[in-house]
Amino acid sequence: MRTRLDRIRHAILFEIIGLVAIMGILSQLGFELGHVGAMGVLFSVVATGWNYVYNIGFDKYMLKKMGTVTKTTLIRIVHSLGFEGGLLFLTIPFMAWFLDLSLWNAFVLDIGMVVFYLFYAYGYNLAYDKIFPVPAVTAQ
Question: What's the predicted TM-score (pTM) here?
Answer without folding.
Answer: 0.67
